[in-house]
Amino acid sequence: MAIKFCSIASGSDGNCIFVSSGSTKILIDSGLSGITIQKSLLGIGVEPSEIDAIFITHEHKDHIHGAGILSRRFSIPIYACEQTWFNMNTFIGPISEKNKHYIYRQESCFINDMKIVPFEIPHDAISPVGYTIFTEGCKISVATDIGHITDTIKQNISDSDILLIESNHDLDMLKNGPYPYVLKKRIMGGFGHLSNDACGHLLVDIMSEKLKYIFLGHLSRENNNPSLAYKTVSSILTENNIDIGGNLQLSVANRGIVSLPVVI
């Protein structure tokens, strides 16, 4: 059976990733309104009621906004770290105990034919994680909101078939842009977000022949743009003798609209 991967949205306005295998459909984050996610799923041929689980990376609003309403409306289980649950409980509203599940970093969680492994990322949230999904012989990784690159991140995203990785900002745009100094310092800090340049060099470090699709995600609206992110990252890859366009496809995940799904 085919594996489908689709970024419903990826950016500071909201994040939601859809992944399906032969018998399982999950969301990573639900940072848009419930109705927006429902319409987006229907637009790619997925009934919202068929979602088997929602996995939360961390408690910031752009990752959890629609999680509660979707869980209540369609009785969808939500999986998150214990401390994340503590911090997001009030915002997402009451969740049925049967749909409230705890996960732990580097401990595998199984949903039908998927193995999902949360791994630690450095961000200014209480217990943030990225996710690696193993299903039908393929590996899919999602890692955004990365303050700095760690060995843990490299180890977990290496040898992926599909990777969505943060390429949040261009350093010059951020430094010269309208954000107040405190916010600029947070974004550039060790628990903020990953720049285009840092993303490109990370990809060089973890590149393998297995990697087929790279999505650049969580682009800043004010401090980046899709063409600049693509140009910066692709230039770094090319400079390191990594060819794009053949066996390796590089694209930018849309901020507020559904990106083109890939099927492998």
Number of domains: 1
What is the CATH topology classification name?
Metallo-beta-lactamase, Chain A
What is the alpha-carbon Rg in Å? 17 Å
Q: How much helical structure, as a percent, in the residues?
A: 25-40%
What is the name of the CATH architecture? Answer: 4-Layer Sandwich
Question: pLDDT average, as an integer?
Answer: 97
Sketch the topology as an H/E string, one letter per element. Answer: EEEHEHHEHEEEEEHEHHHEHEE
Count the helices. How many? 9
Structural class: alpha/beta
How can the largest sheet be summarized? 7 strands, mixed
Q: Any low-confidence stretches, pLDDT <50, length ≥5?
A: none
- The strands making up the biggest β-sheet line up spatially as 6-5-4-3-2-1-14
The tally of beta strands, per DSSP, is 14
Question: What share of residues are in beta strands?
Answer: 25-35%
What is the structure about, briefly put?
This protein is α/β, with parallel strands linked by helices and 264 residues long. It has helices at 34-43, 61-64, 67-74, 82-92, 151-157, 171-176, 181-188, 196-206, 226-239, and strands at residues 4-11, 14-20, 25-28, 53-55, 78-81, 100-103, 109-111, 114-120, 129-135, 138-143, 162-166, 213-217, 249-252, 262-263. The protein is globular.
